[in-house]
Specification:
Number of helices: 13
Shape: elongated
Largest sheet: 6 strands, mixed
Bound molecules: zinc ion
Number of domains: 2
CATH superfamily of the largest domain: Zn peptidases
Helix content: 25-40%
Distance between the termini: 16 Å
CATH class of the largest domain: Alpha Beta
Strand content: 15-25%
CATH topology of the largest domain: Aminopeptidase
Length: 443
């Protein structure tokens, strides 16, 4: 073990230099003007793996998509194949004035290395590289690299890539290094993601607008009627009141109040809604929000009964639930809740399934042991994510036989996608060590 730690120490300066080189390339996939930079970044990634003696290193893309890198290096005969995923494109840096140092110039301040992509997800590539270098040419497993170039714009050609290169990407274990750890000093494996159902609901109470003085008191207006429908979606404590939705337990971890206040953006005095532990409410129970409303604007509103009003409902569904069940429950609830004979119509906007990764079996045992060792005895938390990372479901679907491990370099203060994105350097060292130990354990 101390030998492994020494080797991590020895490879870190080189890994850091390679990370900084990648970060200086402005591979912003959302900006067509910088797609040449995305291509340059794919070249730079490919070059890194050529230098590691990978035998097949290719830059691949599907018509209309951005370049990914696939590379392979064989381990001992009979050893499992491990696919290491990360992405080399980054989010736009947005207003440079919000950054304390230039977004594409890696800058060390305090515990962190700041730059766009210094964490998400060029540090994912660097972590893979570090783990590989710890083992050098004595890899305990066969390794396939898959470094995507369009994750930040929704991985549009990922399914096509996974199909086209299925034979080359086939693996026993898939390590997706694009999530994070629970806290500085506390590792995590991301094991569940909520799904999403978005539904538009329209309420109609009149065939046309009429004078509110002449008819108010007898005919209900649509906005007030819609408000009553929406008010039934939660109980008084703020729990989702739609019957039939799935909810499950989450890991037994505390989300400190101070961190919640700092990270959530809740206005002073706002009370948390719902029951159950904080992380259950964020990861493994349904949540329901109204994200848009259509009705007349307040400025210029006339003395008229509003005939129709619409709202968009955004429902996060728990791992273990299906969008079909959740949609059915929601529509039935709305139809049963509309008062006064109003007409209610619903239109589905879109859906995304929840993901529950089977976090058991030898690959998970290997990962938990590696993480616990790298973090000096602190076991990894089974972390949920409230939103969805759609590409994880694509991997699970494309390779149903493989064990999928979702790891990453991020911590609660990484600020991925924001200004002053930063990689915690001491934690990064543990991430590299953990992955090196994981490869050893899998071997
Ligand atoms: Zn990412």
């Amino acid at each position: 073990m101390s030998d492994m730690r020494d080797r991590v120490q020895a490879v870190l300066p080189g890994v850091r230099a390679d990370l900084e080189h990648l970060v200086r390339i402005e591979s912003v996939s959302a900006d067509p003007a910088r797609h040449d930079e995305v291509r340059r970044s794919a070249e730079a990634v490919a070059e890194l793996f050529r230098a590691e003696n990978f035998d097949q290193v290719d830059i691949v893309s599907i018509e209309g998509g951005l370049p990914a890198v696939i590379a392979h290096k064989a381990g001992p005969a009979g050893a499992p194949t491990v696919l290491l995923y990360a992405h080399h494109d980054v989010q736009p840096e947005n207003d440079h004035a919000d950054w304390d140092s230039p977004p594409f110039e890696p800058t060390e301040r305090g515990d962190r290395l700041y730059a766009r992509g210094a964490a998400d997800d060029k540090a994912g590539i660097a972590a893979h590289l570090g783990a590989l270098r710890v083992h050098g040419d004595d890899l305990p497993v066969s390794v396939t690299m898959f470094i995507e170039g369009e994750e930040e714009i929704g991985s549009e050609t990922l399914t096509a890539l996974l199909t086209e290169y299925q034979d080359r990407l086939k693996a026993d274990v898939i390590v997706i290094a694009d999530s994070g750890n629970w806290d500085i000093g506390v590792p995590a494996l991301t094991t569940s993601l909520r799904g999403l159902v978005r539904l538009d609901v329209e309420v109609r109470t009149l065939t046309h607008a009429v004078h509110s003085g002449m008819w108010g008191g007898l005919v209900p207006d649509a906005l007030m009627t819609l408000a009553r429908v929406l008010a039934t979606l939660h109980d008084d404590q703020g729990n989702v009141a739609v019957a039939g939705l799935h909810a499950g337990p989450a890991a037994d971890v505390e989300y400190p109040e101070e961190r919640l206040r700092a990270e959530s953006g809740a206005a002073p005095g706002i009370e948390w809604i719902g029951c159950g532990s904080t992380v259950e409410r964020l990861w493994t129970r349904p949540a329901l929000s109204i994200t848009g409303l259509d009705g007349p604007k307040v400025a210029g509103a006339s003395n008229t009964l509003v005939p129709a009003a619409r709202a968009r409902i955004s429902m996060r569904i728990a791992p273990g639930d299906t969008t079909a069940n959740a949609l059915d429950c929601l529509v039935r609830h709305l139809e049963a809740s509309v008062p006064w004979g109003a007409t209610l119509t619903t239109t589905l906007v879109d859906t995304g399934e929840a993901t529950q990764i089977d976090a058991t079996g030898p690959a998970y045992d290997a990962a938990r042991a590696a993480f616990t060792e790298a973090w000096d005895g602190t076991e990894p938390v089974d972390m949920g994510v409230g939103g969805s990372i759609p590409f994880i479901a694509e991997f699970l679907e494309a390779f149903p036989e493989a064990s999928v491990l979702v790891t990453g370099v991020e911590d609660p203060d990484t600020r991925a996608h924001g200004a002053n994105e930063g990689l915690h350097l001491a934690e990064f060292e543990r991430v590299v060590l953990a992955e090196a130990l994981l490869l050893r354990n899998l071997g």
